[in-house]
Write a structure and sequence with these properties.
There is one protein chain. The chain is globular, with a radius of gyration of 21 Å. It starts with a helix and ends with a helix. The chain has helices spanning 2-7, 10-49, 56-70, 75-96, 103-106, 109-133, 138-151, 153-163, 167-174, 177-187, 191-195, 199-209, 213-220, 225-240, 242-256, 259-266, 273-276, 279-292, 298-321, 333-354. Helix 8 packs parallel to helix 15 and helix 10 runs parallel beside helix 13 (213-220). The longest helix is centred in the N-terminal third of the chain and has 40 residues, at 10-49. The protein has one domain (26-354): Na+/H+ antiporter like fold (Up-down Bundle). It contains 20 helices and no strands. Helices cover 79% and strands 0% of the residues. By secondary structure, it is mainly alpha-helical. The chain crosses the membrane at residues 21-41, 47-67, 88-105, 111-130, 142-164, 170-192, 204-226, 232-252, 273-293, 299-323, 335-357.
Amino acid sequence: MPQDEESTAPGNRSAISVTRLAALVPGVLLCIAVAGISAALEAAERGLFAHPYVEALVLAILLGMAVRNFWRPPERWQAGIAFSAKQLLEVAVMLLGASVSFAAITASGVALLGAIAATVVATLGLSFGLGRLLGLSTRLSILIACGNSICGNSAIAAVAPVIGADGDDIASSISFTAILGVMMVLGLPLLIPLLQLSATQYGILAGLTVYAVPQVLAATVPAGLVSTQIGTLVKLVRVLMLGPVVVGLSLLAPRLQGGVRSKTIRSEPKIGFFRLVPWFILGFLVLAALRSLDVVPAPVIGPLTAITGFLTVVSMAALGLNVDIRVLATVGSRVTAAVTLSLMLLLAISISLIHWFD
């Protein structure tokens, strides 16, 4: 008992917090350094060409990938890199809500909301059928379909315990996601001139196709604030589809498993609300609501937008530092084909859809 009391003393808790904070410093500083170089290169582009052809966001990803594949950061750097890639970007997404008014999406109204839901449902069914056609197991096909159709790794993590997926299924379904996610962030803006997309159309396209909410931010910031607002809101609606999908799969779970496995699934811990609706999405919605009600003062928006931009570039550097292109050699060909074809299918459906929203 005395030892427990000593370990929980305020002084010890402070020491532990300081230690954890110190563990983040090397990786965070590395990400900031990559982001700083990227910003300097963008500034050089502005000086030479009066316009940056490759924004700091994209440069940060590319530089991070180059560093990662020529020099693997030691273990002591990993905590800060992971923190920058996840928590910092989640904070950026939350802060973005302060610059968003719900009027940006209400203009499209029920039609857009229905189109988002229909796209998710259609892609789920078609992606699942594609996985089964390629010979993948039922559970692995469900994981890939949910990951591509809703929100990448977050959807996979939420669905896996419900359907009783094992570690191999989970690893196989997420191993290619990081690379495809980065490819979408880098490649999707190229479709703006090719398809002559408006800011609203591109925002809808990004919101429907990019895996994670933070990655939507990265893909749309170079296209302007309207695309960023629309893309983020569309993506949030997509993420909210995860709840009904998980509930539906939980009802189908007994049919996916044998009797013994079904008992195991029933003993699984319930998935909490914050697993289905992440905290930063709730924060985004709260700030967006406050902004729509004019509670957030206009002079605050500029600084918050600048902070959001800075955090996003730092996080993109971390994202690049997490991408190992050599992972392609370890992913099965059928899984690679299923994930890639499923994403292409989603992209084709989304491109067809956005021409309805001029």
